[in-house]
Amino acid sequence: MPDLVTLPIPPEAVFVEPDEKGTTVLRLSNEIGNRANGPLEVFPGPASVDCDGDSDSTNDRDASQRIFADTNGSGGYEAGLDAVDSERAFGCMRYHAAHNHWHVLDIARYELRREDSGKLVAHSRKVGFCFTDTRVAFPSAFTPPAGTYPIGSAKPIGCDATSTQGISAGWADLYAFSLPGQQLRVDGLARGKYCLSSYADPLDLIDELSEDNNMRRVRLSLRPRKLRVRRLPGACPI
């Protein structure tokens, strides 16, 4: 199985600015890595059953996860040698117009809380991803050098309605701050210290080795009116 982890946010990937409507937002990049020796691999069903509940049967598909057996006993996944162990339905894939490709829904969530009180002051809707191999994060003997799930590739791998998606063993998928959905509204918040949390697979939809390492927190000093944010050392107390 895979093991999803949320990777640290680089300092330059968190900043405050007005969005296209003039609303002050905190923008952030988010990166989900696969620290296991098995891939995350998901694929859509052949037809829509309106799994997103919007009464439109053209914009979604049931999502299933494929898990591989260690057929040859090597300790990790090897393409062409290890057979499929199981396939299970787990959620929904939906067309994302702003990104112009298909996402697996409910794969990330962002929260901002006051450090002193723990009060939730901003949060994202659950964020969808098209899973792809962006970079090697945890190299091992079972990490494919070129990646198995590149974005924009030809079928059957890619981000369209019929494509298989995934994150290879040792690889990570980066969603940059410039993409739609990678922001929290912070206009009206007081100057102060905050804790920013990012959750991978917040609903535990994906079968993986551990559910205890999916969240990452960072301390911030935030001044929304001045469009300023600064990373702070140390761990969040909440």
Q: Summarize the biggest pleated sheet.
A: 10 strands, antiparallel
Please bin the fraction of helical residues: under 10%
What is the structural class? mainly beta
Give the uncertain stretches in residue-range form.
Answer: none
How many helices does DSSP assign? 0
Order of helices and strands: EEEEEEEEEEEEEEEEE
Rounded to the nearest angstrom, the distance between the terminal CA atoms is 30 Å
Beta-strand fraction estimate: 35-45%
Shape: globular
Number of strands: 17
List descriptors.
0% helix; ten-stranded antiparallel sheet; mainly beta; 238 residues; four-stranded antiparallel sheet
Written description of the protein model:
It is globular and about 55 Å long. By secondary structure, it is mainly beta. Helix content is 0%, strand content 43%. The mean pLDDT is 90. Strands 5, 6, 7, 8, 9, 10, 12, 15, 16 and 17 form a 10-stranded antiparallel sheet that branches. It has a 4-stranded antiparallel sheet with strand order 1-4-13-11, with no helix packed on it.
Write a short abstract of this structure:
The chain has strands at 4-6, 14-18, 24-28, 30-34, 40-44, 60-68, 84-96, 101-114, 120-123, 127-129, 135-136, 165-167, 171-175, 183-185, 192-200, 215-223, 228-232. Helices cover 0% and strands 43% of the residues. It contains no helices and 17 strands.
